[in-house]
Amino acid sequence: QVQFVESGGGLVQPGGSLRLSCATSGFTFTKDGMSWYRQAPGKEREWVAGISISGNCNYADSVKDRFTISRDNAKNTVYLQMNSLKPEDTAVYYCKRNAWADSWGQGTQVTVSS
Question: Which of 1, 8, 14 is CA-nearest to residue 79?
């Protein structure tokens, strides 16, 4: 069974940083690209960043130059380093493998507020 377990969220002041982790299981991690998504209150879930099998990264314009996605194939884990956080980054963050209709994990809440 494919599973995604997100962690690392919390409350942070504007300008602060957080590092999210997503532990995966139930599939061959090295054979799939991975992405982070987020869903803010009252809004649709949106794609944030993606990393390919070979490590190529892409970002939504809203987070470019502030967020960094990475993966550790030995740990079957994908990360999202978030710097210079803004209140509009407040959301529940999820990870998911690309191109598969897997169920979502529980997500991790990120709240950016002073």
Answer: 8
What pLDDT is stored for residue 99 in this prediction?
85
**Of 84, 83, 103, which is closest to residue 95 (Cα–Cα)?**
103
Spatial strand order of the sheet with 108-112 comes to 10-12, 108-112, 91-97, 34-39, 46-51, 57-59
Pairing of strands 10-12, 108-112: parallel
Beta bridge partners of residue 13, listed in sequence order: none
CA separation (Å) from 6 to 11, 61, 114?
16, 23, 24
- Are the C-beta atoms of 84 and 22 separated by less than 8 Å? no
Kindly report the length of the chain.
114
Q: Two tokens at 80?
A: 């999202």
51-100 pLDDT, tens digit each: 999 999 999 999 999 999 999 999 999 999 999 999 999 999 999 999 88
* Cα 17 from chain centroid (whole Å): 14
